[in-house]
Amino acid sequence: MDFNTYSELFKEILDGNNTTPPYDDAHFVEYTKLNASRQHRWIKTGVLSPELINTIEKIKNEQHWLLISEPWCGDASHNVPFIAKMAELNPNIKLEIQLRDSENSEIDNYLTNGGKSIPILVVRNSNNEDLFVWGPRPAACQEIFQEMKNNNLPFEEQKVILQNWYNHDKGVSIQTELNKLLSAHL
Fold first, then answer.
1. What pLDDT shows up at residue 21?
2. Which positions of the chain have pLDDT values less than 70?
3. Strand ranges (DSSP E) for the chain?
4. What pTM value is reported for the model?
5. Is 31 in contact with 76 (CB distance < 8 Å)?
6. Please, what are the domains in the chain?
7. Rounded distance, CA 172 to CA 122, Å?
8. Cis link prior to 119 (omega < 30° from 0)?
9. What is the 3-state secondary structure (H, E, C) of 117-140?
10. Disulfide: which of 6, 126, 145, 162 matches 62 by Cβ 3.0-4.6 Å?
11. What is the rounded distance in angstroms from the CA atom of residue 133 to the CA atom of residue 67?
């Protein structure tokens, strides 16, 4: 699906028109509601750096960006909007969003420490060969997450800490990381 279809999926879930698991669980609907707000905020206020824009504009060969995500995922709500903004900059980039929990999901090929963490961005060339994989969150955020997990911090506390990290970072880390990765494949 494209980003517009992905965004419409949030509305379907929140309107009760999509109750496929896990969206038949009130907790996941509540996560989706919160994430819809976050995603909308980043689409509205997120700004791409001139360096990243310059790199993306230099992409001359077709690239297929496979983004594995889900509306319930908090990390996705902070990262997917920036990836969508990037893909819009160059017609050589085709962004496809795939739901992690769908039958055709490729998530099992891109596990993080054995888990199905998302979002995962797989950038492929025109021969469908993986150029690189990014995710499930910026490296600095991943370190914080891993430390919290290792220290068995309660999930609710983890969510607040990660939310504060994303709010403070304002999309800078994902842009810096993807700029470096994309520059290596120009």
1. 92
2. none
3. 63-69, 93-99, 120-124, 130-134
4. 0.96
5. no
6. 3-183 (3.40.30.10)
7. 20
8. yes
9. CCCEEEEECCCCCEEEEECCCCHH
10. 126
11. 10
